[in-house]
Design a protein that fits this description.
The protein is an alpha/beta fold and 445 residues long. It has 16 helices and 11 strands.
Length: 445
């Protein structure tokens, strides 16, 4: 058996709780991304019904979001401390503790399944230990929940206390304390899946088609992007009508807004300096049309190949791709562009509600290294903005160190740049319902 992967045995199909425990173990032991690990585990658990798949998803994201707090609660009842419990035992226990504190799952079900999972990986003696600890956790959770006037406030407190002190301090430098709590509290519920229609005028028609195709799901227009449809309970998006026809793709709503902020127009030359998977590239290619041109850059040639394949499904293309590492100036990009988009690599703090594992991995040094790289990328990309052209700097972070501080440093270093109309703006999950983003609009004089 793979280290860090709890299982119930070859003869017993995994339950939603087993899947959640496996994902949590992989995130901790293998440094896996939660979304990718969950998709893989659910792909293997083909027997799970939609309701159980939804439960597994809730347990994974909920557990990871408050895991430090939950481990503290479990540790109260472990004489040698929680660090003495190996991950294959800890994972099912922490998933059970999440259910005991924050769901309506019957306590006996949460405890018994966790104990059974431990029995399969560590035998009856360790299972007895897990049973004893979880029963004490259950008793404490029941008392606290009964006395709590506001269960959501209890969950919010767990989220805040699970956030590393360094990250809380960085958030406090970026926004008022009440906003910090509201931002963190958004991590207690999974966000919708955002679709991006290719043509805004067709959005309402596609909402109706999707509702008819998946009556058990919900489809609503986005709050801030004219291209966004927000889906909940729809299952795998690629199985919905419109995907194979290239009528829409999957792209988080804030990411759509960030691409639209560049203001690309028909016939313009545009550079996507950090294209990644190409979601924003697609928005730009659609905007410039057949008479314009979009060039895409990324450090990974593999990503650039995938980008071209994904755009082809949508009936779009780029003029050229360039493998470029802007931080060191490697790779060749020649000429100037009307508009340049810099979607700089960042800590991803703005995506906490869909990537809760970030809080488990973020280091204080990241807030030194990332801004240094972001400044280098933005400055080198600015060399390719024509006089009178514009540059938009984007990060999926809400921290000043990666946002205003980078732009202020860039403007001090580059006298040929100035803040453009619209200036700096933020997208926040508790305000706009998107992931957290910082967007700065600059003009080249």
């Amino acid at each position: 058996m793979k280290r860090g992967t709890p299982a119930r045995g070859a003869a017993t199909p995994p339950t939603a709780r087993d899947v959640a425990a496996r994902v949590v173990a992989r995130v901790v032991e293998e440094q896996s991304f939660a979304a990718a690990a969950l998709e893989g585990e659910l792909g293997r658990a083909v027997q799970l019904e939609a309701r159980d798949r939804a439960l597994a998803t809730e347990l994974v994201y909920g557990t990871l979001r408050v895991m430090p707090w939950l481990l503290g609660e479990i540790g109260r009842h472990v004489p040698k401390g929680i660090a003495s419990v190996d991950e294959r035992v800890r994972a099912p226990m922490v998933v059970a503790a999440y259910q005991l504190w924050f769901t309506r799952v019957p306590a006996f079900a949460a405890v018994s399944e966790a104990v059974e999972a431990v029995r399969h990986v560590r035998g009856p003696k360790v299972a007895a230990f897990a049973n004893a600890v979880l029963r004490r956790v259950s008793e404490r959770a029941a008392r606290e929940r009964e006395q709590a006037k506001d269960p959501e406030a209890m969950r919010e407190r767990a989220v805040v206390e699970s956030t590393p002190a360094g990250l809380r301090a960085a958030l406090a430098r970026a926004m008022p304390e009440e906003e910090v709590r509201a931002f963190l509290a958004m991590g207690t519920e999974p966000p919708p899946v955002a679709l991006r229609v290719e043509r805004a005028e067709e959005r309402d028609a596609w909402i109706e088609k999707l509702r008819a195709a998946a009556p058990g799901a919900t489809f609503e227009p986005g709050r801030v992007s004219p291209l966004a449809i927000l889906a909940r309970g729809a299952g795998r998006p690629q199985s919905l009508p419109g995907w194979s026809e290239g009528a829409w793709t999957v792209q988080e709503e804030g990411s759509q807004v960030a691409a639209l902020a560049l203001g690309a127009r028909e016939g313009e030359r545009v550079l996507d300096a950090c294209a990644g998977r190409g979601n924003k590239t697609g928005v730009l290619a659609r905007a410039v049309g057949a008479t314009g041109a979009v060039d895409a850059c990324d450090t990974s040639p593999t990503k650039l190949t995938r980008l071209q394949e994904d755009l082809a499904r949508l009936g779009l293309h780029v003029r050229a791709t360039h493998a470029v590492d802007w931080t060191v100036g490697s790779g060749e990009v020649t000429g100037t562009y009307d508009r340049v988009l810099v979607d700089a690599p960042c800590t991803g703090v703005g995506t906490l509600r869909r990537r809760p594992e970030i809080t488990l991995r973020l280091k204080e040094q990241d807030l030194v290294d990332k801004p240094r790289a972001q400044l280098a990328i933005a400055s080198r990309a600015a060399d390719h903005v024509r006089p009178g052209g514009s540059l938009v700097y984007v990060v999926c972070s809400v921290l000043r160190e990666e946002a205003e501080d980078v732009i202020d440093a860039l403007l001090r270093a580059r006298t040929d740049l100035r803040r453009a109309e619209g200036g700096d703006s933020r997208l926040l999950p508790h305000v706009q319902g998107t992931d957290g983003y910082f967007v700065a609009r600059l003009a080249k004089t």
